[in-house]
Specification:
heterodimer, A: MetI-like fold, 2 domains, flat, B: mainly alpha, MetI-like fold, two-stranded antiparallel sheet, two-stranded antiparallel ribbon, 4 strands
């Protein structure tokens, strides 16, 4: 029988109150903050199913202190008994939802396409444009992030009026692309920087052209970064309110503008506002849960060098 | 072979570009430029009623510009071959940014020194420095500026909270992925929805759950947007709630990049946890922290959605940010000229402040080991 060399000392085996205490503290803080993050979402979902008396009494737990009713979804025309009936509110809502989807997806896609090409170019070739070198060009793009939207909003209002682009999806897509482009370039530059140039060198020696090597070799490798950039752009463009409020009126109105325009007019009919708010946050909540690691990857890009 | 700006791809491509091809390239670029120029001239003449062609709007100019931009990109490849293909990587983005930022900014400078009420038929009237005087004596604008300073200073508190949460997430805990997803949630929510969810319903004075809780705790008449200080604090908390995850994730990424050996070495040397934090973790995290704070400041300077939707600047402008103030200035009086001037002034202040901050942070970024 082998002799045991390492023994737990008496101190190791004993109950350690300070360690237990620190565990307890860590978990309680984590749980409190998790509660703070989730409660508003929970509150919105449950309020969707509350009638006026439940709202006034402040009931919180469904089936325990109030019976859920289909009020919120009914006001949007999405409850089981109204879903097959013609409903103007639902049509309005679906139109706004569709607008938001198209605008967010299109502008994110354009920004990712433009941004990845630019980031790739800046990470692989040296450019000279007047006095501007690569670092200056990078700075030129990234500095757009500092530009507050309000500076562009009023000139664009006037310009779009002249160009008949006011209240169109194209107009919003162009502006949203601009607002997320610096972020995409920031993330993608980091991504391409981590791919060794030897890959393209090998591809070029094998006879691929520059653009073919980029599309068939480099882009697939950079896919995680592309997804990260796309999702972060999606989050920012889906939630954008300021430009949409100024530049749209009826045709191209997005979901946040619809939510904002309803807040004042509902009185105690909280269920319909809750349903609307919930519909506005639901897509991103789902995306956030499923694709969380890409979002984290994207936000961490550039933070760690 | 690594240059200061990273590894570059060094390739030499055999390119024989014939004279005819060069001529074709030049023809395309200059031809489309001439077309653009012509359309602009025609439209301008039409605009000043020199003669009428019947343009309804400036769309033709836009199309001509797009054509020129496309031809410029195409021409690069025809004229310069391989070199041109390289330029093609950044040229579209450069053209896009120049046309939607630089051009409108120049245009904005023009509007900024005029009085232009979009709802009145007079149109634009140059009024010199009137907007400057008006701004100088506008107490609400300076009040909004002052609020922005407060809002920006709160970032330090947000940073402390975010750092604490990142440390907890980096500790040995179970269910880290669950907590990470949950902590990320507020960032995904639309500020407009948040302003209803929290600002309008949870903080509602009679029925909101938070007001109820406040009453339970002995605050008789909870009103969260009654006094200026309280309203400002509530806006700050709501904004912090949304954006703390952003800083938290960046700091967490930084924490995970710190090599474990550092902590082990410190432990062997007998450092207390507190000392380990102050002498190892914090100094190593300095560059990441500064990046996170700078990015947070950039986002904070755009703060408007929550304010517009929850308090619309009230009570008495106590919660106004510059952006929300200009938004209302336009909504209420539709004065584009004055609003644009305020925005440009704000931009100048931001650019100066950010330049100073970046310069200063460059100095702090060098961690001292």
């Amino acid at each position: 029988m082998k002799k045991q060399v390492f023994h737990d000392t008496q101190a190791d085996l004993s109950f350690k109150p300070s360690w237990m205490f620190s565990r307890l503290l860590i978990y309680s803080v984590l749980i409190v903050w998790a509660f703070a993050c989730l409660f508003p979402i929970y509150w919105t979902i449950t309020t969707t199913f509350k009638a006026a008396p439940d709202v006034m009494k402040g009931n919180i737990v469904p089936w325990w202190d109030f019976t859920p009713k289909w009020l919120g979804l009914k006001s949007l025309g999405l409850s089981p008994n109204t879903i097959f009936v013609e409903n103007t509110v639902r049509e309005e809502f679906l139109k706004r939802f569709w607008n938001s989807t198209i605008i967010a997806v299109a502008s994110s896609a354009i920004a990712v396409a433009l941004g990845s090409c630019t980031a790739y170019g800046l990470s692989r070739f040296s450019y000279r444009f007047g006095f501007m070198r690569n670092s200056d060009i990078s700075f030129f793009f990234l500095s757009q992030l500092i530009l507050p939207p309000v500076v562009l909003a009023l000139p664009f209002l006037v310009l779009y009026k002249e160009l008949a682009l006011l209240d169109t999806r194209i107009g919003l897509i162009a502006l949203y692309t601009l607002t997320v482009l610096p972020i995409v370039i920031w993330i993608m530059r980091d991504q391409f920087g981590s791919i060794p140039v030897e890959l393209e060198e090998a591809a070029l020696v094998d006879g691929l052209s520059l653009w073919r090597a980029f599309v068939t070799i480099i882009l697939p490798i950079a896919l995680p970064g592309i997804i990260a950039a796309f999702i972060i752009s999606l989050v920012l463009t889906w939630n954008e309110y300021f430009f949409a409020a100024l530049l749209t009126s009826s045709h191209a109105k997005t979901l946040p503008v619809m939510v904002a325009s309803q807040t004042g007019s509902q009185g105690i009919a909280w269920w319909s506002m809750a349903a609307l708010s919930f519909a506005a946050i639901l897509p991103l909540v789902v995306i956030g849960i499923i694709l969380e690691r890409f979002i984290i990857k994207g936000m961490a890009a550039g933070a760690v060098k | 072979m690594s240059s200061p700006e990273g590894d570059y791809l060094h390739i030499v491509m055999p390119d024989q570009i014939s004279v005819r091809r060069q001529q074709l390239g030049r023809l395309i670029i200059w031809g489309s430029a001439c077309a653009l120029f012509l359309v602009v001239i025609l439209q301008s003449l039409d605009q000043v009623n020199f003669f009428s062609i019947g343009f309804e709007n400036w769309r033709p100019t836009l199309y001509a510009y797009l054509l020129w931009a496309f031809c410029l990109c195409l021409g690069q490849v025809i004229l310069y071959g391989e070199q041109g293909k390289r330029r093609l990587f950044i040229l579209p983005a450069v053209l896009f940014v120049v046309s939607v930022v630089i051009f409108p900014l120049i245009f904005a400078l023009g509007i900024a020194f005029s009085s232009w009420n979009l709802s009145s038929p007079d149109g634009r009237q140059f009024n010199g420095l009137d907007n400057v005087y008006q701004m100088w004596t506008d107490p609400f604008y300076w009040n909004a500026m002052k609020n922005m300073v407060y809002y920006t200073l709160v970032i330090l508190l947000e940073y402390i909270v975010a750092f604490g949460l990142a440390l907890l997430l980096n500790a040995q805990i179970r269910g880290r992925k669950f907590f990470r997803v949950v902590f990320l949630m507020p960032l995904m929510l639309s500020p407009v929805a948040v302003s209803w969810m929290i600002g309008k319903s949870m903080l509602e004075a009679r029925f909101g759950p938070i007001s109820r809780l406040a009453r339970e705790l002995g605050w008789d008449n909870p009103s969260f947007f009654g006094s200026p200080e309280m309203a400002r604090a509530v806006i700050m908390i709501m904004d912090a709630w949304t954006f703390i995850p952003l800083m938290m994730i960046m700091i967490l990424a930084g924490l995970q990049a710190i090599p474990k050996e550092m902590h082990e070495a410190a432990e062997v040397d007998g450092a207390s946890p507190w000392k380990k934090f102050w002498e190892i973790t914090f100094p190593l995290m300095l560059p990441v922290s500064i990046t996170a704070i700078l990015i947070r400041i950039i986002f904070k300077l755009k703060l408007a959605d929550i304010i517009i939707n929850v308090t619309s600047g009230g009570p008495g402008g106590a919660t106004d940010s510059v952006t929300s103030f200009i938004f209302r200035e336009y909504r209420d009086r539709s004065n584009v000229g004055y609003g644009t001037f305020l925005a440009i002034f704000y931009l100048i202040i931001i650019v100066i402040a950010m330049t100073v901050l970046i310069k200063l942070s460059d100095r702090w970024m060098k961690p001292r080991y």
